[in-house]
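Readers of this paper often ask what the protein records in our data store actually look like. An entry from our holdings is shown next, in its original layout:
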Amino acid sequence: MSSEATRLVIAYDGSDVAQAATREAAGLFPGQPAIVATVWEPGLAVLPMTSSYDVGGGIAMPPDPRTVEALDRSQREHAADVAREGAELASSLGLAAEPHSLADHLDVAETLIDLARERNAAAIVVGSHGIAGLRSHLLGSVARKLIEHSDLPVVVVRGKRS
């Protein structure tokens, strides 16, 4: 089996849980090639500015496209920095890691699955904050969606329960 077929995709957002998942991946798959992926969502930073009502009774105006572009550029740059940080961590733990930031146009889990398929990954590694119950349904869970939709093995590393 070539190293391309053993490549891991590690979901990385810079959180303590993502760091723990990276450490666990390095322990489970020592020396393996890994893509440390950070997903960013275009337009997300603009949502609070685009309310559907206006307190003064007027019509809410759409945000200036230049503002949207600048916010997206800022998010893209931040995601690239976070992915580099994760790849540095993974490399320091012995993985052959490369950073990868990508825009999410549908769903974070589906974006990660598509990346894993494109790069011929053998598994996806993700941290889980352990959100349960109603909060999980309202907020969604990338780990849960990966397990439900991925045709690849998914390694879920649980964070500490508070």
About this structure: The radius of gyration is 18 Å. Residues 45-53, 134-139 have pLDDT under 50 and may be disordered.
